[in-house]
Amino acid sequence: MKRVREFFYNHGWSYYQVRNLTVAPLCFLLFILATYGFTSITQNQSFSEESPQVIPLSDFGLMDEIVERERSWIDGLGNQRYECILRGVDPDTNYNIRLNINVVDYQEEINPVIGYLREMGISVNQNSFRLKDLKNYLEDMNELDADQWKSEMAYSSLTFDIELSAYGNPNNTIYLLSGNRAVVFRYYDNIEITQDLVDCIVSIYDLDIK
Question: What is the pLDDT of residues 129-148, one digit of tens each?
Answer without folding.
Answer: 999 999 999 999 999 999 99
